[in-house]
């Protein structure tokens, strides 16, 4: 049975593990090794710091108490939404998205902004089905040498689900 709950700093190891694996599952088929995949240890350091922030809003999806997805937002920006491939098309991503949007609405935001890797057509289609509105394209020069890429900036209302 899949359950969702708020995530806190104590969940950093689970969030880091899901982030590392879901990142590999998502981006390696699209761009190969070029996009890079920070280690789980690097993700753990990052999420331990981020989840400790007061403005951090995170939700964790669990299947039989095993982390299988998470969503994170800070202020008016959704920073991450990842679900393991084994749990795609089961409503987990939608539930995570709308839970974090509800948190944002409770914090006084009417709208959330986020970016999607321009070549991730599955994610773009997912967000558009949830009501996200394309705002603009943005060119990004990455720091790790894998080359420049394009992000699509989206906006979504926090008021529904």
What does this structure look like?
α1 crosses α2. The strands form 2 sheets. This protein has a 4-stranded antiparallel β-sheet, sandwiched between helices. A 3-stranded antiparallel β-sheet has the order 5-7-6. It is of the alpha+beta class. Helix content is 35%, strand content 33%. The protein contains 4 helices and 7 strands, in the order βααβββαβαββ. It has helices spanning 12-31, 40-51, 92-106, 121-129, and strands at 2-6, 56-63, 66-74, 77-83, 111-117, 133-140, 149-157. A hairpin with an 8-residue loop joins β6 (133-140) and β7. 29% of the residues are buried.
Structural class: alpha+beta
Query: SSE string, helix = H, strand = E?
Result: EHHEEEHEHEE
How many strands appear in the DSSP assignment?
Answer: 7
Major beta sheet, specifics? 4 strands, antiparallel
Beta-strand percent range: 25-35%
Helix content: 25-40%
Strand order of the largest sheet: 1-2-3-4
Quick structural summary:
With 161 residues, this protein is of the alpha+beta class.
